[in-house]
């Protein structure tokens, strides 16, 4: 079983994330989409809310499951028999950061990282920007899965 992880904050997931998850699912027997739990960073959505949206978004992908983890990614991978990290690259700044993490992870346990060139249609899309544009009344419906659009709209209407 060749198992990979697509780690992220997913606060919330976007079409850019989904593109990477779908492509990773074609390359590996199983892909775990893992939400990183960072107690010192309060997001818009709770970990459970992020996971629920991810489960709905990936329901059509039979070899993808959703989980969460806390602590070092290499430890989570070792405990779950995961051989590679699959991530998307949007820009040179992504590359600098991701390369450093990939090298550190390989140094720590030999964990491999697969960096995939992003779909240019979503090169400018990030969770923080979709939140900001929604909060300011802009339309991002075409940039996120339908469930995320619904939940984002609900969150910001609750907040007024
Ligand atoms: N197109 C393509 N890919 C995208 C897009 C897009 N539009 N948006 C995001 N992605 C991909 C990127 O590969 C990104 O890495 C991944 O999705 C997750 O993105 P986010 O924004 O949800 O998550 P981040 O960047 O906040 O998450 C960072 C992690 C939690 C993945 C990272 O900090 C991590 O791996 N931490 C593990 C803790 C650890 O082991 N630390 C030691 C590191 S050496």
UniProtKB/TrEMBL annotation:
The keyword DNA-binding does not apply. Its main location: cytoplasm. It is found in: Cytoplasm. One of its GO terms (cellular component) is cytoplasm. ATP binds at residues 9-10, 17, 88-90, 98, 122-128. Residues 5-132 form the Cytidyltransferase-like domain. Substrate binds at residues 9, 41, 73, 87. Gene3D superfamilies: HUPs (3.40.50.620). It comes from the Bacteria. Pfam families: CTP_transf_like. HAMAP family: PPAT_bact. This is Phosphopantetheine adenylyltransferase. The gene is coaD.
């Amino acid at each position: 079983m060749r198992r990979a992880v697509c780690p992220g904050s997913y606060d919330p997931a976007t079409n850019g994330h989904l593109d990477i998850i779908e492509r990773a699912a074609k390359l590996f027997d199983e892909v775990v989409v893992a939400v990183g739990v960072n107690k010192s960073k309060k997001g818009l959505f709770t970990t459970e809310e992020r996971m629920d949206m991810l489960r709905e978004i990936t329901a059509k992908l039979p070899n993808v499951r959703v989980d969460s983890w806390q602590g070092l990614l290499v430890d989570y991978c070792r405990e779950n028999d995961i051989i590679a990290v699959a991530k998307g690259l949007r820009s040179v700044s992504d590359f600098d950061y991701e390369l450093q993490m990939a090298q550190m992870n390989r140094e720590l346990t030999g964990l491999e990282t697969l960096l995939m060139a992003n779909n240019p249609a979503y090169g400018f899309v990030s969770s923080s920007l979709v939140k900001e544009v929604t909060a300011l009344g802009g339309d991002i419906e075409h940039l996120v899965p339908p469930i995320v659009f619904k939940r984002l709209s609900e969150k910001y209407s609750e907040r007024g």
